[in-house]
Design goal:
160 residues, alpha+beta, Multidrug-efflux Transporter Regulator, Chain: A, Domain 2, TATA-Binding Protein, 2 domains, 6 strands, globular
Length: 160
Amino acid sequence: MEEKYYTITQVAEKLNLHHKTIRNFINSGKLNASRMGKQWRVTQEDLDLFVQSRESSEQNESSDSFTILKQPEILRGGRCQVSSVIDLADIAKNQYMRISNLLLAVMNGRDPEFQEASINMKYYEGEQRMRIFLWGGLKFMEEMLNTVGLLTEEEKGNGE
């Protein structure tokens, strides 16, 4: 059986990440890749191992983690898709854990219309900053932005 090889761009599309992020993972040794000519190639097996290792370690890593909930399909039929980055400052680690757990719960109990939607979260412990990366349709984006708004307003109400 012939092994399937992916380019950095293809891996980035599959994981819903920027191609520079994939290059960083390769350069740091977190993602195995082979040099073919002037380009890097990643096997399906190496990609699967990478995703599994990131999913199992994401709970233990607060300063270098991301979450892959759903690999988006290629857009068809001209449907509207939106991406957004939410940057939350002055977020303590316990607040990050609470907010991220609640957002993951919303994603896991999501409307079937949100099948192609994804959320990635990252916490910068030294800066006490949280970034939330959203990708999906308008209805998904509206629901997630409202949820983040409610969660951050609740934080302010608790004396933050």
